[in-house]
Write a structure and sequence with these properties.
By secondary structure, the protein is an alpha+beta fold. The chain folds into three domains: 7-63, Arc Repressor Mutant, subunit A, CATH 1.10.10.10; 72-275, Bira Bifunctional Protein, Domain 2 (BirA Bifunctional Protein, domain 2, 2-Layer Sandwich), CATH 3.30.930; 279-323, SH3 type barrels. It has nine helices and 14 strands. The protein has a seven-stranded mixed sheet. It binds biotin. Residues 93-95, 115, 118-121, 124, 126, 135-137, 179, 189-191, 207-209 line the site of biotin.
């Protein structure tokens, strides 16, 4: 009787293809104890995970690009000790899993190679093909609600921009409230979910998605202009990024930000956020709200976005709307 396909078997095949070199079908099938048809079925599953597996008669199979798997042990030893890190091959959504995880284990971080139901802002999907990008969430419990919580996502934007800068990615900007942009194209996004626990306890789950090596074909369903870390690096003649290195830097930055948010809030990030503001001085509008059209004028003390309209300065609260250059 055919054995049910185990995730582990598929991961072994991913590892066998990880170099991006051609691998003969015969060798791959023999190593896995499969027929050629059985191997083709497994390759089909990898494609369902969003992997870009090419096949060629006489050559076999290869990944369109080399793949660096996330290394849970490396990540765990590279982040502050109190942060528990887990890497999962696939989950529906790292945010969803952590929202339902035991708060007693906070602070905890979850990274996935593939999300089957990645969540974006405002109920959108977040496209999450296997091994192509960074999908990570971190959960934090506070003894009381931190002040200025709406500005947390702006702080997280700065954390990500710093990590990208350290990876050699030039030109990252922040589009209010929490898109990472390079040259008017989306490089990543942030989704913060929160809930009150018993008493005054407050729990936040910060989710970060950064496009790292996603191929045009893998992201063909995305309905807005986007780019990747590797594309930006290549445009400056630089080598592809290490997802593990980038993950470590983002996790470090998030840990620092969340640990001191109750006391310091947005202040340590404000000046940098303003310097990276992609919409300052540009024509913007708030979709669906005709009167909110004008020039982007930065943010107020609470992190609300300011628009200079014909009727004067108006502020838009975090989470309400998207802004696009008019
Ligand atoms: C946006 O719409 O811009 C926010 C995207 C946030 C995506 C990340 S990927 C890791 C985490 N898990 C999710 O399901 N979503 C966030």
């Amino acid at each position: 009787m055919a054995r049910p396909l185990a995730e582990q078997d598929l991961l072994l095949l991913v590892d066998a293809l990880a170099t991006g070199e051609w691998q003969s079908g015969e060798t791959l099938a023999a190593a896995a104890g499969l027929t050629r048809a059985g191997l083709a079925k497994r390759v089909g599953h990898l494609r369902d995970w969003g992997l870009n597996v090419e096949s060629k008669f006489g050559q076999g199979y290869r990944l369109a690009r080399p793949l660096e798997r996330l290394d849970g042990a490396l990540l765990q030893t590279s982040v502050p000790q109190d942060l528990r890190v887990t890497v999962a091959p696939l989950v529906d959504s790292t945010n969803r899993v952590l929202m339902e995880a035991d708060p007693e284990s906070d602070p905890q971080a979850l990274l996935a190679e593939h999300q089957t139901a990645g969540r974006g802002r405002r109920g959108r999907d977040w496209h999450s093909p296997f091994g192509a990008n960074l999908y990570l969430s971190i959960a934090w419990t506070y003894a009381m609600w931190p002040p200025h919580l709406p500005a947390l996502s702006l702080s997280v934007g700065v954390v990500c921009a710093r990590a990208l800068d350290a990876a050699g990615v030039d030109g990252v900007q922040l589009k209010w409230p929490n898109d990472l942009w390079v040259g008017n194209r989306k490089l990543g996004g942030i989704l913060i979910e929160q809930r009150g626990e018993s008493g005054d306890l407050c729990r936040v789950v910060v989710g970060v998605g950064i496009n790292v090596a996603m191929h045009a074909r893998q992201g063909s369903a995305i309905d807005q202009p986007w780019t990747t870390v590797d594309e930006v690096l290549a445009s400056c003649g630089r080598k592809p990024a290490s997802r593990n290195r980038l993950a470590v830097d983002v996790l470090h930055g998030l840990h620092e930000c969340l640990a001191r948010y109750v006391v310091k809030g947005f202040e340590p990030y404000r000046a940098e956020w303003c310097a990276l503001d992609a919409l300052r001085g540009r024509q913007v509008y708030v979709p669906g709200q005709d009167r909110l059209r004008g020039i982007g004028r930065g943010i107020d003390d609470d992190g609300a976005f300011l628009i200079e309209t014909d009727a004067g300065l108006r502020s838009v609260l975090s989470g309400d709307v998207s802004l696009r250059p008019a």
